[in-house]
Amino acid sequence: QLKVYRQSLLKWAFEGKLTNKKVKDGELPKGWKWNTIRDVCTSVEYGSAAKSKEKGKVPVLRMGNIQNGRFDWTDLVYTDDDDEIEKYLLKKDDVLFNRTNSPELVGKTAIYKGEQKAIFAGYLIRINRIESLIDADYLNYHLNTHTARTYGNSVRSFGVNQSNINGTKLKTYPIPVPPLPEQKQIVSEIETRLSVCDKIEE
Distance between CA 194 and CA 200 in Å, rounded? Predict the structure, then answer.
C-alpha cells in the first residue's frame, strides 16, 4: 500500500492537486505550463569515461549508487585524475540521470546534496538546469514519477539486456512547470508526506 501511495502522491503533486484547491482532471492549474527538459536546462552533459580505481582522491558516483532518488555512498570507486576531477566535479543540487541500464533501472535519477566531493561516471548525465526556472528537487521527483518513467520507456533504445536513453532523448521529456515558489511548496508537501511513509515503513 505504501508503494502505491508514494506513486499516487507524486502523481497528485505534478497534477497540482497538493497545492491547488480545485484542479480538473487532465488540465494543469492556472499559472502552470507544459515544458520539456530542453526548455528548463542550458545543457546536458555525460560523465567521466576514465577508468576508476579502488582507492583515490575523489569518489566517482556510478549508476549503482542511485537509490530512491538519492546517492548511496557505500560501494564507491575513486579517481586521482585532476583533469577529470576539475571537469566532472559535482555541484550541490546537481540532478543526475541514469542513461544506460536494465530496462527497469534506466532513466532513474538522483540529486547530489554536496555530501562529499565527488565526480560522476559516463553512464550518468548531468542536467544543467536554469535555476530561475526549475527547482532541483522538483525536477528530481518528477523524473522519478510513473509518468516520466512511462515516457522514458517510449523513447529508449534497446541493446542486449540494456536500455539506453541518450541526452537528446532526455531533453524531450515533458514536464509540468509551475512558478518557482509553488515548485518549492510542492517539494515540501511531498517530503512531509514521504517522511511519514518512511516512519510507517520502519
Answer: 10
Q: What does the pLDDT look like over 91-141, one tens digit per residue? A: 999 999 999 887 778 889 999 999 999 999 999 999 999 999 999 999 999
Cell of 175: 514536464
CB 49 within 8 A of CB 124: no
- Burial of residue 130 (number of CB atoms within 10 Å: 0-12, 13-18, 19+): exposed
Cα-based angle 168, 91, 177 (whole degrees, multiple of 5): 55
pTM above 0.90, yes or no: yes
Cα–Cα distance list, 195 to 56, 57, 133, 198, 199 (Å): 35, 34, 26, 5, 6
Residue 28 per-residue DSSP state = P
* H or E element at residue 60: strand 58-61
